[in-house]
Amino acid sequence: MNFTNILVKILLHLMAAIYSRIPSKRQYLKSADGWTNFCIGIRTENRSVMAAVRFNDGRVSVMGSIPEGVDSVLIFRDGKAVMEALNLPPNELVMFLTKGKLRIEGNFAYPNLFNYYVSVLLYKKHLGMQKKLIEEHERQKQADSMKGDSGPAPAEKSARHGALRAPARDRGVKYLSDPYLSGYSLSDFPRLKEFLDQHFTTKPEICPERALLMTRWFKENGFEKRADGTPWPPELRQAGAYKYMMEHRRPIIRKGDLVAGTSTTKDIGVILYPDAHGTMIWGELNNVPDRELNPYNISGDTKRVLHRDVFPYWTHRNFREWVREEYDNPLCQRIDERFAVYFLWKSVALSHTIADFPKLLRIGTKGYIGEIRREIAKTSASKRDKRTLLEAMILCLEGLAAYAKNLSKQAAAEAQSETDPVRKGELLRLAVICDRVPEGPCETLDEAVNAAWIGWVGLHMENTNAGLSLGRMDQWFQPYFAADMAKLKSAKKREEYIKKAIELVGCFYMRCTDHLPLVPDIGNYLFGGSSSDQAITLGGITPEGKDAVCDMTYLFLKVTEMLSIRDPNVNARFCPGVNSDAYLRRLCEVNLITTATPSLHNDKSVMSSLKEFAYDIKDLRNWSATGCVEPTLSGKHIGHTNCMMMNMVAALEMALNNGRHPLMNWKVGPETGAIESGSFRTFEEFYRAFTRQFQFLIDNSVELNNMLGKAHGYIRPTPLLSALIDGPMKKGLDVTRGGAKYNSSGSACIGLADITDSLMAVKKLVYDEKQVSLPEFKKAIDANYQGYPELHALVMSRVPRFGSGSEEALAMAGRVAKFAHDAYYAHKNYRGGRYTAGFWSMSNHVIFGNMTGALPSGRLTGKAFTPGLTPEPNASKNLLDNIRDVARLNPRHMNNNIAFNVKVVPSASDTHEKMVDTMHSYVKTYFGLGGMQMQMNVVSSAVLRDAMVHPELYRNLIVRISGYNAYFVTLNREMQIELIERAEYRV
Amino acid sequence: MNRTVKSEVNQSKNEPLIFEIKGNSLDDGPGIRTVVFFKGCPLSCVWCHNPESKRRERELSYDKKKCVGCDTCVGACPEKALDRGLPGFVNRERCSLCLKCAEVCPSGALSAVGNRMSVDEIVREIEKDVPFFENSGGGVTLSGGEPTLFMDFASRLAARLKKRGVSVLLETCGFFNCDTFMKMLYPHLDMIYFDIKLFDGAEHLRLCGRPNDVILANFAKLYRKYRQGGTEVLPRVPLIPDCTATEENLSAIADFLRKLGVKKIGLLQNNPLWFEKNEMLGRSTDIETGSMRAWIDREKMERIRSLFKGIEIV
Do A878 and B136 touch (CB under 8 A)? Predict the structure, then answer.
């Protein structure tokens, strides 16, 4: 018996004694429905440490071995990792998962509960540890910020509002005399200024409302079975709970708001979805207010309610555990749960889509219900599933309407007691609006905005707030704007109305910031700083192929510019040859002012990337960006475009190690040849090893995605979304089961530049020039190039990289992209659709990089990969080389879109106009060459370094990560460094 | 000297070495531009920002920041000219410029400066940037060094570019034979950036190695031509602290320009990094340059701008 093993047992016995004997602690073992019983094992890989704790009917016992039927086992790499873990707060312990120091086998909820039990005892000690870690990080950041070149002081931020006037009016612009709206600035809108200030100063708080109401209904009415013992049709069960929740959630109108309703009961609320990943926060309930990154407030009441009433009910009723039980802990899931090679968003959400908002605004829930009733009348009684779904849809739509009615009453009641006559008028108007919509059709812009928002809240109450997107709001609001305008005759009235409309859209944006996704601390490293990523799409062309840029496009751009917030995630479509230069210049100006948004898309290339699906051309032209950048056909398509994040570099590491993944220390992939014993006589043989490993990862990730998809169909079908998407009503299938008109699943393949450069290095140095043998190269890589400075220098200076203008490197990147595309496209998903391949990375290029060793490309151990498919900074000093290479990749092989980051830095001497001109030239040329997407960060490394240590001065500094925006100061240190080290080009 | 070497030397008089073709330049004329740097210059300004452009011949550059210290080069050098004991590593007296060291250097710390390129090769290299020119109103800038030192080559290159529809801008120090220039190069140019450094002839001789009378006369001639509808000429002054950026010099230049009716001027901010580049080439100078290696701060810049009252600073 070793010391660590003895210590672990002593501590567990101590814990068991406290929980079994002290009543104030013992009460934690009980949920609202009785004792929470489970058994958790703790061991090291070689079993040098081994113990188990059983919680049974209020007693806690410790065992020296791990019994059969244990719920979960924490497996540490070695005794050292165990000792380290004893000195960590629970959130840091979870980080062990990403360091290869810990893996979990079995149910994921119980380790979180166990962590919670530990934190109840050690809360104060953990707080001290957390403080120390934070101080340590501050010191590191201080040191990091001192690195880098000295140079002239960073250029001052350009004017915070647009300075240019539109040189011309687009055909679709009917009412704006200066479409750039340069006469307005934030100071004209005190209401928005106030909201913005609250946005930056309010600490988010966990809101249990949705989880609690849903759980209450399920406990009363059953989840698997009805009270009478018959099995529930999942759609009907969800609809029943949904309607109950919508009727009973608090109708809140934020002080001073022009848009009624909130996503949660908190000013900024974190929504909990215990049927998805909600229980992941269980272990952190005590620590979450004090964690370093994205801390949330949580009330004692919320903690108690979640621990006692909510979480115990969901330990098995969630996507992840349903798959584990249904498929007996399959290999594809065990790979996923090591976090190193792929991450399946499907375990959290199936929400990357765009509902048919224009139809909701046009006919209202009443119109929908009428349609559904007619469909029921046409449907024979034998089609029970279809009838069930249709009934479920009605319940959901009724729930949505009921919530609006409650808001109406609330507005009327508040108007009664309101003393300010202006506000009183606004509240009375809100009472009228919410009484009419979204139940009935919208007639005015304020009705449309409120109806869209209430619909949006309703969708988020059903489905996880992760990438659910808004779509072409400029197109869909324009008719209401135009109708309002047409009624106004005097120029003065019209100008007043335009100002009001800007304010209204501004309120809508700020409403969208009222909720955040639940991010357990591990998520701060996986997806740091990401909000819900509610993509809005502007401009482009109409379903008929005409110029779609209109008044509302520019209104949205003005709001984007003035607020300069991370979410909604604004995406702009530009169709070369159809959209105007004036519009493209304005997009660049807004990008310059906000430093990071909108993201810019080439309509022609995005549409051509989807050619093989043979979508109806009108639907195709109606595409919107979803979550980050990915295309979804608005209102008709479940494309779950972010079903997974795939680490392509893991496949390369496995090829270098004959199927073994180094960090996981797991020979999980096929044996494709050992370098040490002389495999790979040609580059082609080596390349094939890489693609075989990649294929293995793709096959497994797809298998898991399909399993998780089935879990959604059972655990959480979404009848409201099904009603608001074209297809399910006729097909009689929920969208989670393939009811939508179009179905697909989208992947994000990470590390294209790192893979390409690595393959080029192997090809050039080993096979073409024979400067080094592969076994020798492998040794250098395994040693992180320590002791191999010459070889490292050779790699860095002599290998033609992606983004350098090298035809060969470009062809290599294209070859890898084609492989990814073909391998994914060959698979069918559980809804009958195909898989697409995208090349963007959210922030996973950082964490996956942290989990990866040195590469043939010269990238050192632990360093971030490049974001999206952005070339490596060393590829070329010339931005134009980057732009040309990325533009020349074939969109057909990148049908889930790309994220191409460009960091441009204004020079102190450049005028605002010159900067806009230059950015415009880059984008226009890039699009002309066929580039799909581009996103520019207009900020220098000097500014970012300063922000690292003076976060209080930069709270609103937004940066594009890869596809989404984040506030720089909320990012973890690794991500901040990745942004600083990106190649920068001066504008 | 045998025949082949001789003809190489003869040819190199007319055919320049190119030491860089730099894309995406935003400071060398309107729009996005590609700059072709010619190697060789009649002047030898001590602060020269491109010291590698001064000599016409190929040179060896050593960047100690890139060096990993593997000493592969030391073994490869037939002249034993590489010595870690030397401050600049390369013994320039011994070095025969065979460049064997640069061939084997894994990091690129040792590199050759200057490549022989034909007009065709240069045009081909530039071709990929043309779409960026079209969307930005940019083009090609001939710079250096001094392109007019290779009048025949420069004019053939400019003519070819012009024919391709690419706008051509010349950056010049102004030290050239004006008649030849007007005949050969001028017709192909869309714009001229003309450097005026020091107004005092003696100072000019001391710090730039040549008198400035030809330069000032050439400028006056070209500017008059511009006012009569010729190619636009923009005078530019590099601001070197305690050197060109003195009140006396700048006032004198401003007076000179005002008399010619000049409306616009470019002021070039000093970039102290030029000194490091000098070291890479093993260059040194007897002239004290310490104070020339500083940034010009905002306050001082304001004072400088005020000296050019009546002339727009672009």
Answer: no
Does residue A900 have a pLDDT over 80? yes
Token pair of B23, please? 């894309």
Q: What angle do CA A892, A577, A561 make, to 5 degrees?
A: 90
Of B22, B68, B135, the CB nearest to A790: B68
Cis peptide bond prior to A598, omega within 30° of 0? yes
Q: Could you identify the residue written with the tokens 């001229």?
A: B192
Query: Contact B68/A924, CB-based, under 8 Å?
Result: no
Q: Dump pLDDT digits (tens) for A622-638.
A: 999 999 999 999 999 99
User: B107: which chain A residues are within 8 Å (Cβ-Cβ)?
Assistant: 793-794, 796-797
* Interface contact A924-B107, CB threshold 8 A: no
> How far is Cα A83 from Cα B103, in angstroms, rounded to an integer?
52
**B72 in contact with chain A, both atoms CB, cutoff 8 A:** yes
For residue A584, the surrounding DSSP H or E stretch is helix A581-594
DSSP SS3 for B34: strand
The residue in chain A having the minimum alpha-carbon distance to the alpha carbon of residue B70 is A790
B132 CB within 8 Å of a chain A CB: yes
Q: How confident is the model over A63-89, as a mean pLDDT?
A: 94
The encoded tokens of residue A436 equal: 């009419």
pLDDT on residue B8: 37
Give the pLDDT of residue A153: 43
Q: What is the pLDDT of residues A241-257, one digit of tens each?
A: 999 999 999 999 999 99
Smallest Cβ distance to A152: which of B31, B72, B295?
B295
ipTM beyond cut 0.85: yes
Q: Is B138 on the interface with A (CB under 8 A)?
A: yes
Within 8 A of A769 by CB-CB distance, chain B residues are none
Place of tokens 């100078």: B285
Does residue B26 sit at the A interface (CB-CB below 8 Å)?
yes
Measured between CB atoms, does A367 come within 8 Å of chain B? Answer: no
Q: Which of 3.30.750.24, 3.30.70.20, 3.30.365.10, 3.90.190.10 would CATH assign to domain B59-113? A: 3.30.70.20
Rounded to an integer, the average pLDDT of B20-46 is 95
- Residues with Cβ within 8 Å of A970's Cβ and at least 6 positions away in sequence, in order, are A293, A294, A528, A529
From chain B, pick out residues whose CB is under 8 angstroms from the CB of A929: 131
Q: Is the pLDDT of residue A161 over 90?
A: no
- Residues facing A630 on adjacent strands: A626
Reference A582, options A264, A893, A171, A883; nearest CA is A171
Could you tell me which chain B residue has the CA closest to the CA of A876? B23
Q: Mutate which of B26, B67, B73, B273 to test chain A, going by most A C-beta atoms within 10 A?
A: B26
- The pLDDT assigned to A936 comes to 93
* SS3 assignment, position A834: strand
**C-alpha pair distances (Å), A926 with each of A202, A600, A914, B56:** 40, 11, 18, 37
Q: For residues B250-259, give the mean pLDDT.
A: 96
Q: Is the peptide bond before A438 cis (omega within 30 degrees of 0)?
A: yes
What is the pLDDT averaged over residues A964-975? 88
CATH no. of B2-57+115-313: 3.20.20.70
Where are the domain boundaries for CATH 3.30.70.20 in chain B? 59-113
Residues A669, A659 contacting (CB under 8 angstroms): yes
Distance separating alpha carbons of residues A591 and A845, to the nearest angstrom: 23
Spell B143-178 as b/e; 16+ CB within 10 A means b: bbbbbbbbbebbbbbbbbbbeeebbbbbbbbbbbee
State the average pLDDT over residues A713-740: 98
Reading the block at residue B199, the tokens are 């107004």
How big is the A-B interface in CB pairs under 8 Å? 68
Q: Which residue carries 């001073």 as its tokens?
A: A256
Residue with tokens 């004893």: A86
Tell me what the mean pLDDT of segment A302-324 comes to. 98
Domain with CATH 3.20.20.70 in chain B: 2-57+115-313
